[in-house]
Structure formats: C-alpha cells, structure tokens
Write a structure and sequence with these properties.
Helix content: 55-70%
Mean pLDDT: 88
Structural class: mainly alpha
Shape: elongated
C-alpha cells in the first residue's frame, strides 16, 4: 500500500480542511456547468482557418518559436509522437482544456481571500462569468490552439494560488509560470488582476496597510516577485532560443516602440467602443447588455463606497489597486508591437468585469439579497450560453459556406481542358477579404473568419472539401493585376485557364 498521508497533509495545508472542501466544490461546480454550457464545442467542434492550415501538419519550429511559443511546439511534438494529429485534436482534448481552465477560475478570486471572501455564491458566479462570457467562446473555435491556451492559463492561475497560500513552494509556482508563459503569454493579465484583487481583499480583511499588518500583505509581495522572476526567465529563454537558432521574431512577439505610444493610447480608447457596442459579441440583446454593465458598475461602485465611507491611511493602497485594474485588464496586448484585440485576447477585460460582479455578490446581504444577485446572474449566464451556442452554430454555417464555394471552384476547374491534380492553381481573393456576402452575427476580426481570407488555409480547404489533392501555388503580383481585369466569383468566368497550362481563380 502507498502511504498518501504526507501528500494529503500538504494539500490540506493550503487551506483548512473545511475551506478546502468548499473551494474544491466550487471548482467542480464551475467546471461541470462550463463544460455543459460549452458542450457543442466539445462534441462537434467546427473548423477554423488554423484547422485547414494544419492539414499540412503541425506548425513548424520556426513558426511557433518566432511567436515565443516554444512550449506549445513541444506539446504538439509530444502529441504527434503519440499519434495525435490535428484533426483528432479537437474532439480529444478540447473538453479537457476547457474543464481544466474552468476548474481553476474560482482560484482567481480565492487565492488571497479568507473564508468569508470565498463564499460559494459570489466566487462561483464570478468564475462562471469568466468561463461563459461570449469573448471566452472564441478560443474554442480554434480547437487546435485552445488546449494549450486554456492549460497555460490554468497553470498560471494555479501558480499564483500556490505562492499565495504556501510561499515556500515558490519554486514550483515559478516553474509552472515559465512553462505556462512558453505556451500563452496572455496569462500575465490574469495573474496581475489576481494580485490587484488580493490587495483589495487583504485590506478589507485587515482594515489597513499599516506596519503591524504588513505580514498579511507578504503573500502578495511573494506573488509579484515570482511573477516578475518567471517573466524575466521566460524572456531570457525565448531570446536565447531565437538567437541561437537564427529565427526571426514575428511582429506580435515584439514590444511596442516608444514612438508609437500615442497611437496605441488612441487604439486602446477606441477599444471602448467595441466593448460597449458588442458587449456580448452580437449586436442584439440590449437587456442582457444593460444587466451585465449594471452589475459590473454596481460592484465596483459598492467597493469604492466601502473604501471611502470609513477611510484609513491604508485605504490608499486598495484605491491604487482599483485604478490599476483597467491597465492590467488590457495588459500584454497594450505593450505588444501588433495591435490585434480579438475577443479571445480580452480575457483580462472579462475578468475585470467578473470582479465587479464578484463584489456585488460579496456585498449582498441576507438570503433575499444573495438570492436576487444569483437570480440576475443566472439570467445573464443563460444569455452568455446562448451567444456561445450562436458562435458555434455560426462556425458550422461558415464551414458550410466555405465548403460549397470550394466545391464550386473545383467544379469550374475540372472543366478547364487538360486540368489534373498536378495543374498549378493560384487563388486571388478580391471579394472575400473577411466574410461571405451573408453576414454572421458573431463574425468579428478572425472570429468566424472565412478560410478564403487566410492564404495558409486555402490548400487545406480546397482539398478537404473535394477529396482531391491540389497543386496550389502562391499568387504573384501579376495574378492580382490580371484578376482585377477579369470577373470574380460569383460572376461567370471567375476561373481562368492560362496559356501556359495553369489555373487562376478570382474570388
């Protein structure tokens, strides 16, 4: 028999037994409800532009190392060694990644909290706001990337929780953070927001930040040190790898030049318009949108009033933390060289809003007050789930649009005299830069983006839709000029047979 006593003792040491049981129950409930709400993505995942591109094989070392995702490359290589290919990846691991991330989300609110601040209702409701918000559904449309992104986020959250509860395991948290950053760097936003939330929770628990109460803030200091140390180690490893291997970094792996700061500030301000107009990704649902922002604003306002009604010298610290929350919510994407605020990278914004709803649940008094908050939150979660299902159904509809057009293109190509599977085919996209003429409610940036708009995906899309190999060649500038003078789909004659034997497709 194996003696598990020491292990159980260490696990119980993170929290008292009753508190640990309540927290684990919260995590299980959140994970179960999240997987149930996202079941279509688990049982019947759609195809993204990456799905078609990966039909040619997993991303290469150069592709992922240039983005700073060397850990993701190692995970893909390991999976490939065990006969797990990209097509099988979604149905095999999409649900696992989702469940692991959902299980970790209550830890975002519990890392620095005491038992009263970890109430099942407030913590569970806020965690579900993170996992079920429509922005969080986008990563599930990229099924090949979702597992590593969700796993890395869960590892980062768990690392902060460990160092908050047992600082002597800082080395384990540091290793977890470095490994997680090598797969998904946006987890920094989650970690920073957890620390800021911890500052506020600690103040409310202790009543101030005076010298006699400094010991209560020590876990936050440890968490900052471990996070900064892990980030420094990750950057050093990344730089040494790309330098040694002679790999050029892509734009989104670099930092914003100082002379672009003003432009980036304008871009961040413009993001507010998107957050307001497409709070739920879709443009309808005004009642759900109003309820969401009402609960978020009420939570942060209640917290501010609580800090100001009985002001102390130490209240400066939590007020500063509140001011820093928006900056931490944007976080990494604000300092990146490339500005691409797709919904899936706005997890920090979602968490900041969920923190507002957490405060509503925390300040709610009496059974009636808490029942009201949970009832309103349940209505909101139902709306979130419905939009998530719309994201999934729109992806399946988009896949159908793409397949039908790919089959139409192939039907036109085989009519060309002498066409074979070895005939060079160049495709020029004139009219489908983002979407098909029939718009989809959840299409935004590269969420539910037509595969015809991604050059990497064209070959896989045409081959998978027709069951035939294709000799696709890159379109040259001369091809683009020629297509500008000829019909493009859906006009007749959008497939041209060249005198030298090749095919030019204008769409």
């Amino acid at each position: 028999m194996i003696d598990c006593g020491p292990l159980h003792a260490r696990l119980r040491g993170l929290l008292p037994a009753s508190a640990m049981g309540q927290l684990v129950l919260t995590c299980l409930v959140v994970a179960g409800l999240t997987v149930l709400a996202r079941l279509p993505f688990v049982l019947s995942p759609g195809l993204s532009t990456d799905s078609y591109a990966y039909l040619q094989g997993w991303p290469t070392l150069d592709q992922l190392f240039s983005q700073g995702r060397f850990g993701q490359f190692l995970v893909f290589k390991l999976l490939g060694a065990f006969a797990i290919d990209p097509l099988a990846f979604a149905t095999l691991l999409q649900g696992i990644g989702l469940a692991v991330f959902a299980f970790s989300t209550p830890l975002m609110f519990a890392a620095f909290a005491d038992r009263r601040q970890r109430r099942l209702g407030a913590t569970g409701l806020a965690a579900l706001m993170v996992t079920l918000h429509p922005y969080s559904a986008e990563i599930l449309t990229f099924s090949e990337a979702s597992f590593t992104a969700l796993l890395a986020s869960a590892m980062g959250v768990a690392a902060i929780f460990i160092v908050a509860r047992r600082p002597r395991f800082w080395w384990l948290a540091w290793i977890m953070l470095v490994a997680a950053l090598s797969m998904y760097q946006l987890l920094i936003n989650y970690a920073a927001l957890m620390i800021l939330l911890g500052v506020i929770q600690t103040y409310l628990r202790t009543g101030g930040a005076l010298r006699d109460e400094w010991v209560a803030y020590r876990p936050l200091f440890y968490a900052i040190l471990v996070l900064v140390g892990a980030l420094a180690a990750y950057l050093c490893i990344h730089k040494s790898l790309v330098t040694t291997l002679g790999i050029s970094e892509v734009g989104r792996a670099g930092f914003l030049p100082l002379d672009k700061l003003y432009l980036r500030a304008q871009e961040i301000l413009s993001l507010g318009g998107f957050l307001w107009q497409r709070t739920l990704l879709v443009t309808y649902g005004s009642a759900a949108k109003g309820l969401f922002w009402g609960m978020v604003a009420a939570g942060w306002l209640l917290l501010l009033l609580r800090l100001l009604v009985r002001p102390r010298m130490g209240a400066v610290l939590p007020v500063i933390a509140m001011v820093l929350v928006p900056a931490a919510a944007i976080g990494v994407i604000a300092v990146g060289k490339v500005w691409w605020p797709a919904p899936r990278v706005l997890g920090g914004v979602v968490l900041a809003c969920a923190m507002g709803i957490y405060w509503v649940g925390w300040f709610a008094q009496g059974r009636l007050g808490r029942a009201l908050v949970l009832g309103l939150g349940g209505i909101l979660l139902l709306s979130f789930t419905a939009v998530g299902h719309r994201v999934h159904s729109d992806q399946l509809q988009l896949n159908a649009f793409d397949r039908l057009l790919a089959q139409r293109i192939y039907g036109e190509m085989i009519r060309a005299p002498g066409y074979t599977d070895r005939t060079p085919v160049a495709v020029v996209n004139r009219r489908l830069s983002w979407a098909h003429p029939m718009s989809l409610a959840t299409a935004w940036m590269d969420l539910n983006l037509t595969a015809f708009a991604d050059k990497r995906a064209l070959k896989g899309l045409l081959e998978l839709s027709n069951g035939r190999t294709l000799n696709q060649v890159p379109a040259e500038p001369a091809d683009i000029e020629e297509c500008a003078e000829h019909p493009a789909w859906p006009d007749p004659g959008f497939v041209l047979k060249r005198p030298e034997g090749g095919i030019l497709v204008c769409i």
